[in-house]
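Re: weekly structure request thread

Next one in the queue (233 aa):
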Amino acid sequence: MTQLILFMKLGVLFSGGKDSCLALQKAKEKDEVVCLITVISENPESFMFHTPNIFLTKLQAEAIDLPLVSITTRGEKEKELEELEKVIRRAKEEHGIEGIVTGAIKSEYQKSRIEKVCRELCLECINPLWHRDEINIMKELVENDFEVIITGVFAEPFGREWLGRKIDFVTIDELEKLERAYKINPSGEGGEIETTVLDAPFFKKRIEIEKSSVSFSRDSGTLKIEKASLMKK
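Done, posted below.
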């Protein structure tokens, strides 16, 4: 007798950074990802959402070949959750999703609020990276040929030279040392670093940066991607 395997239709909360991309890959291994969901916060110090190069998610969605459902918020604390609910509701109506995937690792603040929204909308909340070892997560990215660069640094001891740096085994080794010396979170879960993914196993095309600029002051800075295009793999 043939066993019927049922796949959930999922939407991924997508920032274009390493954690949401790795969570997307893991979701695709078990279920059907039908859309990406992005909240574009106008507040660079948003309590909930990744902001550096968030507008690149449109190009990343094209590279992945998935529809993107997005909404813009002013980024006011707690009120931005109302925008999150709106965009998830829209994704449910437009794509019939049954669950939401997040890239949360240790942030109870983010996880609990997303779960609350999901409960209100009768959706499953799936957190494939939750409480996983951060260094192992970083190594998994490299081992699976993710092309990830650091596009934001927001804490000592990160200097300007970290912006644009690729996540590879040398970088991971340095992050481990900084974790021991400065008690930082090596994956940036505490907001120390932000990343942008230019390629991954599920990308149909890779992203090439054509123009960028750096802004840096007092242990904080960003690499702003001003122009990028899709390239054949």
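The longest strand covers residues 205-217. The radius of gyration is 17 Å.
Next request, please.
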